[in-house]
Amino acid sequence: MVHSDLNEHELISSTISEDSQTPLSETVTTLASNVYKELERIIKNFGENSVKDLMPVMISTLESLDTALHDREVSKLETESLKEQNEQLFQQYEREKSF
User: Fold this and answer.
1) Structural domain tally of the chain?
2) Where do Polar residues bias regions lie (predicted)?
3) Which run of H or of E encompasses 10?
4) Are 12 and 58 in contact (CB under 8 A)?
């Protein structure tokens, strides 16, 4: 075990931002699970102290990654919306220009 107070579910859950209870993306959840398994292996070989300072860094990194993935998705949606608006405005311009 990584720490008697921290299991895989808690590692994954702890990366959910406290101000929003939005579930983590599937990508980040998978990464958190893989990190947890690797940390278990390291602890088994070198003891709990070998990862105690790494844990907060990993959680912060996973949170940042999840935020970046969310921001990218929002940007993609905004870009698509702007492209549609641009196309509509261009069509309107073409119609008005022909009058």
Assistant:
1) 1
2) 12-24
3) helix 8-14
4) no
What does the pLDDT look like over 4-31, one tens digit per residue? 455 666 666 665 545 455 678 899 999 9
The string of DSSP codes covering 34-69 is HHHHHHHHHHHHH-GGGTTTHHHHHHHHHHHHHHHH
Structure tokens at 95: 């119609």
The C-alpha atoms of residue 76 and residue 63 are separated, in whole angstroms, by: 20
Report the pLDDT averaged over residues 42-65: 92
Domain membership of residue 3 (yes or no) is: no
Show the domain range for 49. 8-97
32 is a domain residue = yes
Classify residue 33: in a domain, yes or no: yes
Would you say residue 47 lies in a domain?
yes
Distance CA(19)–CA(12), nearest Å, equals 16
pLDDT band, residue 99 (cuts 50/70/90) = confident
Instruction: State the CB neighbour count (10 A cutoff) for residue 38.
Output: 13
